[in-house]
Write a structure and sequence with these properties.
By secondary structure, this protein is an alpha/beta fold. It is built from 16 helices and 19 strands.
Length: 472
C-alpha cells in the first residue's frame, strides 16, 4: 500500500461503501448532541417511526443556551429566562430521557461545552470518526481523530443510520517548526496561521498540524488549534497520535480499561502520517516569527501582532480587499493606522470551546494574580468550559484570583461566545474575547469582538486596552 496521511488512514478505516460519483458512506463512531441542532433531528426520527441506530454512541449536554450566573443555574431548566432557550434545553432533556441517551444535564457537574466535555471524559478518542451539529467539532481532531460538524438533517441521518455521506477532502499540512517565544500561546499560533492562509485557505482540505511546535504542544493547546481549523476554511483539523495523546486519554471515564487499553493503544499508534505521504498543499511557518495576536476586524483572518497597526485601505490595491478593510474599520470603530495597543476595551470574555480548559484558566490567572481589573472595563467574565474544569480551578484557588481582581467567576457554558443566552455585548462595545469568531454581531448586535489568547485577554482587562503580555 502506498504511503498515506493521517487523514487518509482515518478515512479508509471508516468507509462503508464508495460510490461512483466520488461520495462515500462513512461510519460514525461517536455522535455528540446539544440543544440547538438536535430538536428537529429527533422530531424527524419520531415522524418517520425510527429510533437511534446505536444509542450508546450518542452523548448529549446542553451548552449554547444555558445561563452562566449561579442564581439562574440553581433553578435548573426553570431558571432559564429566555423562553426559546428554555424550550430547547427542556426538549433535549425530554428526547434523551425518552430514548435512553446519556446526557449531562444542566446541573450535572459533567455538563459543559460539547467540545470540552467530549475529550475530557474520553467519550472522544483517537482513531474515531466524531460528529456533532456544530462546526467547531473539529476540536476533537487534536486526539488523532476525524471530527467535523454536521447540519441538522445530517444529525438525524447519523442518529438513524450511524453513517454519513461525504466526499473525501484534499490533504493539507500546516507545519510550524522552531520554538515559540515566551508569552506566545497555541491561540496565537492558530491565529497567525489563519492570518497567513486566510479564512478560505483551507477550503476543501483536511488540515494536519505538524512540526516541532505541535509535537511539543500540550493536548489542551492542540485542542485550541484544531478548534479553529474551521476558521481557516477547513472542515477538519487534526494532530497525529503520540505519547502526549495517549497520556491525556488514559484513565478518562469513557476510555478503554485493562486489556482493552493496551489493545486500543496498539491500534491508535498507526494514526500518524507516513514519512513520504503526499500532501496537496504544505504551509510552513517559523515559530520565532509568531507574536501575540489580536484580531482587529470582522473576520479571523483580519489579525495582527500586538505590535502592529490597523491597516490603511488607501494602501490596498485590490478593490475587493480595500472595500473589506473599509467596512471592517467602520463596523469596528477603528481608524486606519491606529496602533493595536491604542484600542480601548469595554468588556473581557475568557471562555468558549476554544479557550476554557484548565490550562487556559491557569494562564489567565497567572497574569491577573495580585492585580485589579481596570475601572474602564465594565465587565470581565471567566466561564469554565465544564463542571470538571470549574471544580479543578476552584480546587486550585483560581476562582478567588479572578474575583479578588474584580472578575466574575461563572458557571459552565458557551456564554458570550455567540450571545445565545443572557451574556451579550452592547452595541459599539469592544471586547477582548478568547472565543473563535469575530463576525459582525457575533457577541451581540453591534458588538465588536477582538480575538486573543487567555493571557492577552487577562492583561487587557488589567490595562483597559490591549497590551503586549510579554512585557506586562
Amino acid at each position: 500500500m502506498s504511503a498515506r496521511t493521517l487523514y487518509d488512514k482515518l478515512w479508509d478505516e471508516h468507509v462503508v461503501s464508495q460510490r461512483d460519483d466520488g461520495s462515500a458512506l462513512i461510519y460514525i463512531d461517536r455522535h455528540i448532541v446539544h440543544e440547538v441542532t438536535s430538536p428537529q433531528a429527533f422530531e424527524g426520527l419520531r415522524l418517520a417511526g425510527r429510533k437511534p441506530w446505536r444509542v450508546d454512541s450518542v452523548l448529549a449536554t446542553p451548552d449554547h443556551n444555558v445561563p452562566t450566573t449561579s442564581n439562574e443555574r440553581r433553578s435548573g431548566v426553570e431558571g432559564i429566562e429566555d423562553p426559546i432557550s428554555k424550550i430547547q434545553v427542556k426538549t433535549l432533556d425530554e428526547n434523551c430521557d425518552e430514548l435512553g441517551i446519556v446526557e449531562f444535564k444542566i446541573n450535572d457537574q459533567r455538563q459543559g461545552i460539547v467540545h470540552v466535555v467530549g475529550p475530557e471524559t474520553g467519550a472522544c478518542l483517537p482513531g474515531m470518526t466524531i460528529v456533532c451539529g456544530d462546526s467547531h467539532t473539529s476540536t476533537n481532531g487534536a486526539l488523532g481523530a476525524l471530527s467535523f460538524g454536521i447540519g441538522t438533517s445530517e444529525v438525524e441521518h447519523v442518529l438513524a443510520t450511524q453513517c454519513i455521506v461525504a466526499k473525501k477532502m484534499k490533504n493539507m499540512l500546516v507545519q510550524v517548526d522552531g520554538e515559540l517565544a515566551e508569552g506566545v500561546t497555541p491561540k496565537d499560533v492558530v491565529l497567525a496561521i489563519i492570518g497567513e492562509i486566510g479564512t478560505a485557505g483551507g477550503t476543501g482540505f483536511a488540515i494536519e498540524f505538524g512540526g516541532s511546535v505541535f509535537r511539543a504542544m500540550s493536548m489542551e493547546g492542540r485542542l485550541t488549534v484544531c478548534n479553529m481549523a474551521i476558521e481557516a476554511g477547513a472542515r477538519a483539523g487534526m494532530v497525529a497520535v503520540d505519547q502526549i495523546t495517549l497520556d491525556y486519554v488514559k484513565d478518562k471515564p469513557f476510555a478503554p480499561k485493562g486489556e482493552q487499553w493496551q489493545q486500543a493503544v496498539d491500534h491508535w499508534r498507526q494514526f500518524t502520517s507516513d514519512e513520504d505521504a503526499h500532501f496537496d498543499r504544505v504551509v510552513t511557518l517559523n515559530a520565532a516569527d509568531i507574536e501575540p495576536q489580536v484580531s482587529w476586524g470582522t473576520s479571523p483572518e483580519m489579525v495582527l501582532p500586538i505590535t502592529g497597526n490597523v491597516p490603511d485601505p488607501t494602501r490596498e490595491a485590490d478593490p475587493v480587499k480595500k472595500q473589506g478593510i473599509e467596512r471592517a474599520l467602520f463596523y469596528m470603530g477603528l481608524s486606519a493606522g491606529q496602533a493595536i495597543q491604542d484600542i480601548a476595551l469595554d468588556r473581557v470574555f475568557i471562555g468558549s470551546c476554544t479557550n476554557s480548559r484548565i490550562e487556559d484558566i491557569r494562564a489567565a490567572a497567572a497574569v491577573i494574580k495580585g492585580r485589579k481589573k481596570s475601572e474602564s472595563v465594565k465587565e470581565a467574565i471567566v466561564v469554565p468550559g465544564s463542571g470538571a474544569v470549574k471544580a479543578q480551578a476552584e480546587s486550585e484557588g483560581l476562582d478567588k484570583v479572578f474575583t479578588e481582581a474584580g472578575f466574575e467567576w461563572r458557571e459552565p457554558g458557551c456564554s458570550m461566545c455567540l450571545a445565545m443566552n443572557a451574556d451579550k455585548l452592547g452595541e459599539g462595545e469592544h471586547c477582548a474575547s478568547t472565543s473563535n469568531r469575530n463576525f459582525e454581531g457575533r457577541q451581540g448586535y453591534g458588538g465588536r469582538t477582538h480575538l486573543v489568547s487567555p493571557a492577552m485577554a487577562a492583561a487587557a482587562a488589567i490595562a483597559g486596552k490591549f497590551v503586549d503580555v510579554r512585557k506586562f
